[in-house]
Amino acid sequence: MAADAAGKAFFDADVAGWEGAEEIKACDIKTDSAAVFAYLTDQNDRMVASVRDTKNDGSCTSTATNMITDEKPVKLVVCIDDGTSVLKSCSSAWGRS
Questions:
Q1: Over the Cα atoms of the chain, what is R_g?
Q2: Which residues in the chain come in under a pLDDT of 70?
Q3: Which of 8, 25, 65, 80 is 20–30 Å from 35 (CA)?
Q4: Half-sphere exposure of residue 36, counting CA atoms within 13 Å on the CB side?
Q5: How many CA atoms lie within 13 A of 46 on its CB side?
Q6: For residue 73, what are the CA distances in angstroms to 31, 57, 68?
């Protein structure tokens, strides 16, 4: 999933070798002063995890924990974070944990 072609986010509902863990990853893919912010929400739109990638350096930033009960609806959101108090160009997609 991409946010205005400046960032991408990924969700892995079943991290290999880590029972019950989920992973979200944010990737800043545009050289500018903005970062990419990705977050995961539950079915009630409550944020359960987030991650921020600040540089287009060929790598991504991720976090992996047991974020939510398996087989629950989740929404992954990716946005541009330009340092203001408002996230911009957000994209989202629903999936299952």
A1: 13
A2: 1-4
A3: 65
A4: 31
A5: 6
A6: 33, 32, 10
Predicted TM-score (pTM) of this structure: 0.89
Q: What is 54-79 written as a DSSP string?
A: ---SS--EEEEE--S-TT-EEEEEEE
How many residues are listed for the chain in this entry?
A: 97
CA nearest 34: which of 76, 90, 88?
88
The CATH code of the domain at 2-96 is 2.60.40.10
> Which amino acid makes up residue 86?
V
- Are β-strands 88-96 and 73-81 bridged in parallel, bridged antiparallel, or unpaired? antiparallel
Q: What was the pLDDT predicted at 76?
A: 97
* Residue entry with tokens 């991409």: 2
Q: Which long-range CB contacts under 8 A does 55-58 form with residues at least 24 apart?
A: 55/28, 56/28, 56/29, 56/30, 56/31, 56/32, 57/28
